[in-house]
Amino acid sequence: MWLVRPALPGDVNQILAIAGTVDSETARLSSTLPRQREALAEKIQHSQASLAGTASSDSQPPRILFVLEDTATGRIHGTAGVDARAGNGQPFYNYRRDALIHASHELGISSRVDVLYPSHGLTDHTLLCSFSITPELRNTDAFELLSRARILFIAGHRDWFTHRVAVEIQGVQLADGSVPFWDSLGRHFFNMDFDTADQHSGLLSKTFIAELMPPNPVYVTLLSESAQAALGQPHELTVPNLELLQREGFQAGCYLDIFDGGPVLEARTDALHTLVISQPKALHGAIESEVESVVEDGGDLCLIAAGEGAGFRCTLAKAAGTLEGTLKVPVKVWEVLEKTAGDQVRVAPC
Amino acid sequence: MWLVRPALPGDVNQILAIAGTVDSETARLSSTLPRQREALAEKIQHSQASLAGTASSDSQPPRILFVLEDTATGRIHGTAGVDARAGNGQPFYNYRRDALIHASHELGISSRVDVLYPSHGLTDHTLLCSFSITPELRNTDAFELLSRARILFIAGHRDWFTHRVAVEIQGVQLADGSVPFWDSLGRHFFNMDFDTADQHSGLLSKTFIAELMPPNPVYVTLLSESAQAALGQPHELTVPNLELLQREGFQAGCYLDIFDGGPVLEARTDALHTLVISQPKALHGAIESEVESVVEDGGDLCLIAAGEGAGFRCTLAKAAGTLEGTLKVPVKVWEVLEKTAGDQVRVAPC
Amino acid sequence: MLVIRPLKETDLEDLYAMAQKAGKGLTTLPADRDLLQRKIAHAQQTFNQRCAPEAGLYLFALEDTETGKAVGISGIQARVGLDEVFYNYRLSVTVNASKELGVHVRTPTLHLSNDMTDTSEICSLLLSDDYHGGGNGLLLSRCRFMYLDEFRKHFSEKVFAEMRGVSDEQGRSPLWDALGSKFFDMEFTQADVLSGLGNKSFIAELMPKYPIYLPMLPDSARAVIGRVHGNTAPALKMLQAEGFNFNGMVDIFDGGPVVEAFVNTIRTVRDSVNRHAMIAKKPINLNVPASERVMVSNRSFRNFRVTTVPASCISTDTVSLPPAVAEALQIESGDPVRLAPLKEKPKAAVHALG
Amino acid sequence: MLVIRPLKETDLEDLYAMAQKAGKGLTTLPADRDLLQRKIAHAQQTFNQRCAPEAGLYLFALEDTETGKAVGISGIQARVGLDEVFYNYRLSVTVNASKELGVHVRTPTLHLSNDMTDTSEICSLLLSDDYHGGGNGLLLSRCRFMYLDEFRKHFSEKVFAEMRGVSDEQGRSPLWDALGSKFFDMEFTQADVLSGLGNKSFIAELMPKYPIYLPMLPDSARAVIGRVHGNTAPALKMLQAEGFNFNGMVDIFDGGPVVEAFVNTIRTVRDSVNRHAMIAKKPINLNVPASERVMVSNRSFRNFRVTTVPASCISTDTVSLPPAVAEALQIESGDPVRLAPLKEKPKAAVHALG
Q1: b/e map D182-217, b = 16+ CB within 10 Å
Q2: Distance from CA of residue D146 to its chain's centroid?
Q3: Other residues' Cβ atoms within 10 Å of the Cβ of residue A178
C-alpha cells in the first residue's frame, strides 16, 4: 500500500536518492527540497519539531515534510511539503506582473506596457512545496495521494495554516538546461548560474535575494523574446501536477517566480477541493473478511487520513459508507493508519 | 412613479441644479459628473450616441448617463452613469496598494512597508460612475432604483460591457473641505486644490495626469498621519451607496483613487447580484383593475426594466408572477416603461 | 569679412536653406519656415529684452559682409526645462553585492532625469558647407562663450551642450531601436522631430519611468550610450578643449552625451582679455591663418558682434582695428572690446606645473 | 615637532582614546579596540603593498615627536564600494508640467545611488583637543592631497569626502527621524554604528528602494539635506577652499553632503612644488605662525612623512631644512621633497583675471 507520513531522520538517504533520480531526468522538480545531506536533515528536524508543536514561533513557523512510502517494501518514492507561512518569517519573493498603459491623447497612441514589480505579496500565505516523486509513479494514484495528502493534513490542522495557499510551479527550462527567464534577467544581477541560485533560494536566509535582486521594476518588453514567452509558463514535466492542482481549485494569478518566471498558483485554503469534500468518519468495527469483500466489490477509491501531528498518516484505499455513518475499509488500512475500529479518520473521494 | 431613463439634452439645467444641491451639502458625490454646462451637454450627447450605437469605437467606447425622473412632476432627482470601459480608451489611473517586507535576517528585524504603485490595472473594466441624488431621497427605494437600474441595463446589453466592473467611492474629506490624502500627496505635484484637480479628472484627456502625477511609487509611511488614516476609507456620506454596492457583490480590492485615496470596489460583471437574480419576463395582458388589485395586495416590490438603447426604461413597482410565467404589473407601469401586454421586460426583486 | 551678429528676420531664407541641408541631425532647427520664423522672433525679443531673462533664446548669425548672407548660426538657450519638461537619462551604476556569497555586481543603469532643468544650453550650431574651415566653426561656437561671460547674470553658472548620438545613414539609432521604439510606437526620426517641435507631453505620457538596466539591452544599444555621431566628433573635441566634460547624462532617444562646464572655467573665458579699440590708420593684413587670429567682440548685449583679427593687432592696453572691422563691429576708437584666442594655445605651456 | 607618518600598531591606545573622545560623530573610527586594531593592520598592509591597490586604506598619524604620541589621524580609502555596497542619496529634481493647465512643478527628489563606487575617499580625520589650532588640522587634512598627487595611480581621478550631517546634542538627526527611522526599526546612532562596523547588508535589506519626494518630508528634515553639522563647518570650508564642491550626493542617514574634487585641480596639488632638501648648517627659527609655514613631504610611498617649515626656507631649487626636520622626515641632503602651502594664499591674487 501507499502511505504518506511525516519524514523521519532515517529517511535522509532515500530522499537524497530520489532527489538524484528526479534530478537526472527532469533537472529538478522542487527548489525547496535541499540536495545537501545537512540541509535536508535540518529540514526534517524542523518538520519534526513543527509536528511536535515545539517549533512554532513567528520567526520559525511550521514547515512540514512528508514522504510517500511503499508499505510493502518500506521504500520511499516521493516527498511533499507544506510551509505554514511562505517566507518562513522572512520576505517571500515574487514578481508581480502588472500592466501600465502608455498612451498619448494627442498622438492617438496607446500601448500596454507590462511591468514586473518585486513583490512580497504572498509572504505568510501557506505554501505547498518540496514536491518530488520517482518518475515511474507520475500519473498514478500514488502521485495524487502524495499531493493531496497535504490538503488533508491542512484540513486536520486548519489553525496551523493561513487562509490563502500558494504553490510555485517550475518554469520553462530548455532541453540544454538553460532557463530563458533567468538568462535574460536574474543572471545579470546574481552573477551565478540558475541551479546555484535555485539551490541558494532553498536556504533559510533570503538576505542574498534582498542584496542581489534588482531593486526596481523591470519592463517585460526589454526581456529576451524567449524569456517573454516563458513568463508564467510551466515546465512541461510539471503539467500533470499543474492539472491536479487546478482540479484542487488553484489558479494562476499575477505572481511569477523570480528565478525562472514560472507561474505561482493561488487558492483560498477553505475552498480547496479536497478540503471541501473531505469528511470526518469513524472506522466501522466489523469482521475482517466481511468488510474486505464489501469494500472490494462496491467501495470507492478514497484518500483516508488519520492521526495528528507526527502521527499523521494518509493512504489510498477502497472504502464504503454504512447506514450508521461509519466507514468500512479493509483492515490492512487500519494497520497502515495505525488506527482501529471506532477511531476517527478523514476521508475524501479520489 | 420613479423612472430611470437615459439623459436627454433637455435635462441639462435640471442636472446642473442637482449638482448644485448635492454640492452644497456633500462637497461632491461624483467627479465624473461635470459641473460645467458645456461638458455636461457633451457628456449627454456622447451618451445618446452610445445608445444609438454610433459612438462605439475603440477610442470612444460607450458612456451612458441615466437620470432619475419623478413621472408625476417630470422633475429630475438624480443621475447615474456607466462607462463601458474605464479610461474610455485612455489609461485609467489608480494607486495599487501593495506591501513589501523589509527584513534583515541578521538583525532579526522585519517590517511591512506599504507602497502605492501608479497603476492602470482597472483600465477597460466597466465603470459605474456619475452617481448623484437629491439629499431627501437618500436611503429610499428611489436611491436603490437609480443605482441598480444600471445593472439591469448591463444585463440587457451584456456585450457592450466587459467581464469586470469597478466603482470608485469618494474618499475622506474633512468638515473644512480639506482632503487629507490630496494634501499629503497630490497637491505637491499638481499644484492645485483638490476640487480643481477633481474637476479636471472628469474631462476626457487624462494627459495632465500622465504629465503631473509623480512617476514613482510612494511609501505610505511618508504620508501624513491623517492621509494614512484616510487610505481606502469612504466618505461618510457615501456609506449608504457603499453598502448598496456591497450587497450587489462589490468588494474593495487593492486599488485606491489617486486624488482622495478613496476605495475602488470591484466585482465580476456576471456575478452582480441584480444581474444574477434578474429574469426576462413577458408582461401579462390583463384587465386593468384586476391586475392592479392582485399586484397591490400580493406583489413584491421589483425593479422592472425594458427597452433597448435609447429606449431603456427602469422603474420600481409591485409585481406578481403568473402560472404561465408572465409578469403582472399595474398598467401605469406599462406606460412608464412604454411597453404593453406581451412585451419583454427584465425584472429583479428589490 | 565674416561677422557674428544677432539673428534677424531677413535671415529666414538663408536659415531655411541651411536647415534643409542639415537634414535630420539638427532637431532644434527643423526645416520648417513657421517654426524658424518664430525662433527668429523669439531671439529678437530676447536681444531687445522683451521677454523674461530665463526665457531667453540667443541666436547668432555668422554673416558674410560681402554678400550680406547668413552663412552660419549658433545659439544659447538661457534656461532649459521651464516651458517644457527637459528629459535626459542619467547613466548611473547599481551595485548589488552579497558578502556571504562573494558576489559583487555593478549594473550600469539609466535613470530618467530632469536635472538639467534651469541650466543654460548652447545649441543650434549650423555652418553652411561653403564656409567650413578657416576657423569659421570655431568663431561660431566660441563667440557664445564670450557672450556668456559678458552677461553672466542672464545665464546659469554651468552651461551644457547635448551632442548628437550615434545613428546610421538611414537615421536609425541603435538605442532607439532597442529601447525607445518599445515604448513609443513611432520611428526615431518622428520622435526626434516631435521633440524638436517643442511639444514634449508625449514624452511624459509614453516614456518608461522606471530605471533601465543596461545588461538587458543588446550590445549594439549599450555600445552607443554616451557616444557621439561621427559628424559630431569634431564639435565634441572642440568643447572638450574648452573644458567641457561628459556629465553622465545622455539623450533619451539616441544616447548622445551631455557635456557641461562652469562658465568661469571655460578656456575662452579664462583666456579672454579686455582692450580698447584703436582704429588703425596703417593698413593691416587681415588675411592670416586662423591660428594667428583672435576673436574680438564689441561687448554689446543687444547688438553683439564678433569677428577675428590678427593676434598681432593686440598691444598692452589697446587693439588696433582696421576701419572695416570697426565698422563691422559697429564701434569707434576708444570703445571697449573683448579679445579671446580663436584656436587653442599650445598645450605644453598649460601643463607645465609641478 | 609635529610629523605626519603612517599609522602603526603602537598607536592603538592613542587612537582609542581619541575615538572615545570623538564620540558618535565619527562612524568610520568607532571606539572599538578590535576594529581599530584591524584598521591599523589594514593600513600597515596597504603601505607595505601587501593588499590589492584598490583595497588600500591609507591611515596617517600626526605624531608629536617630543612625546612620541599620536595626536591626530587622517586617512584615504583607495576605493569605496568594492567590498561593501556604498550608498548615497542623489539629490535630484523631478519636473512635472502640463502646458495645457499651465502647471510647472519641480519636486526635489532623493534617489538611492551607488555612484560613488570605485572612487577614493578622504576620511577619518581626528585631532586631539590639545592640539587644535596652529595649522595642525590643516596639516592633518592636506597632507593627504600631497599623497594623492604623488601616487595618483593608486587612486581615482576624483576624490570625495562625506561630511557629517546635522544632528542635535542628543545625536538625533532630523532626516533620520523623518525618513530612515520609518524603515529601519532602530535609533540613528545604532544604524550609524552598524554602518561604520562595515556590515551593510542590512541597508540593502531595509532601505527604501524607490525615490523619496522631498515635499512629503517635514520641513525639519528637508532643511538639513546637504547641510553639515556645526562642528564640521570648518572642515567643509577648508575643503571648499581646496576646490571641493558639493556633488549632489548626501548621506542616506543624516543627509550630510558629499563634496568632491578632481585630484589635479585640488589647490594643494596645484600649488605644490618639488625641491631638493639641503640640511641647513645655520639654525632656523621654526617657530613662525602657520600662515608663514609650508608643508614639506619626503615623497615616500611606504613611509610618507610630512611636517611644516617656514616658507622662507625655500629657494629656487632647494629647501633648507634643520637637521631635526630632516631626521623627522627621514631624509638626507639632496633627497627630493615636495612643498605645498599650509594655508591658502591671499584670495585677491587668484581672482585677478579679466
Answers
A1: bbbbbbbbebbebbbeeebbbbbbbbbbbbbbbebb
A2: 13
A3: 14
Q: Rounded to a whole number, what is the distance in Å from the CA of D176 to chain B's nearest CA?
A: 12
**Chain C residue numbers touching D199 (CB-CB < 8 A):** 99
Q: CA–CA separation, C197 vs C205, rounded Å?
A: 17
Contacts for D172 with CB less than 8 Å, ≥ 6 apart? D188
- Please give the Cα distance from C110 to B301 (Å, whole number): 63
User: Which of D224, D328, D329, D258 lies closest to D86 in space, CA to CA?
Assistant: D258
Specify the pLDDT at position C169: 87
Residue C172 has pLDDT above 80, yes or no: yes
From the list D114, C109, C222, the residue with the least C-alpha distance to A211 is D114
- The torsion of the CA quartet D12, D14, D16, D17, rounded to 10 degrees, works out to 160
Residue D308 gets the label, from left (phi > 0), alpha (psi -120 to 50) or beta, of beta
Instruction: Note if D229 is an active site residue.
Output: yes
ipTM: 0.86
Give yes or no for residue C346 having a pLDDT over 70: no
- Identify residue B162 by its one-letter amino acid code: T
Alpha carbon C287 to chain centroid distance?
A: 27
DSSP B316: E
Among candidates B143, B127, B79, B95, which has minimal Cα distance to B269?
B127
Highest mean pLDDT among A283-292, C104-113, C191-200, D337-346: C104-113
For residue C47, pLDDT over 70 is answered with: yes
C-alpha cell at C192: 526626434
Alpha-helix residue ranges (DSSP H) falling in C76-231: 136-150, 174-175, 181-183, 188-197, 201-206, 219-222
Residues 6+ apart with CB under 8 A from B236: none
- The beta strands (E) that lie in chain B are given as 2-6, 63-70, 75-83, 94-104, 109-119, 126-133, 164-168, 218-219, 251-256, 263-268, 279-282, 300-306, 313-321, 327-328, 344-349
In the block, residue with C-alpha cell 512597508: B113
User: In this structure, what DSSP letter does residue D176 have?
Assistant: I
Q: How far apart (Å, rounded) are the C-alpha atoms in residues B200 and B213?
A: 13
Q: Is residue C295 pLDDT above 90, yes or no?
A: yes
The length of chain C, given as a count of residues: 354
* pLDDT at residue B24, rounded to an integer: 41
pLDDT given for residue B296 in this prediction = 62
Inter-axis angle of helices B37-52 and B12-26, to 10 degrees? 120
> pLDDT by residue (tens digit) across D27-65?
678 888 999 999 999 999 999 999 999 999 999 999 999
Distances (CA, A) of D225 to A20, B184, C115, D91, D257: 57, 20, 17, 9, 7
Query: Which cell numbers in the block locate residue C68?
Result: 550680406
Span of A24-33, A254-263, D269-278 with lowest mean pLDDT: A24-33
Contact D105 B219 (CB under 8 A): no
Q: Give the model's pLDDT for residue A299.
A: 77
Residue owning grid cell 513543527: A50
Residue type (1 letter), A176: D
The greatest distance separating any two alpha carbons of chain A, rounded to the nearest whole angstrom, comes to 84
Give the residue-averaged pLDDT of C182-196: 82
Q: Given the residues A46, A77, A125, A235, select the one marked as catalytic.
A: A235
Closest chain B residue by Cα to residue D212: B218
Interface of B with D (CB under 8 A): 102-107, 109, 111, 113, 115, 184-185, 188-192, 200, 205, 207-208, 211-219, 221-223
Strand partners, D294: D309, D341
**pLDDT classification of D239: cutoffs 50, 70, 90:** very high
DSSP character at residue D164: P
Across the interface, whether the CB atoms of C111 and D114 are under 8 A apart is answered no
Judge whether D350 is closer than 8 Å to chain C, CB to CB: no
Average pLDDT over residues C237-260: 95
Cβ contact, residue pair B215, C201, below 8 Å: no
Chain B residues within an 8 Å CB radius of C201 = 207, 210-211
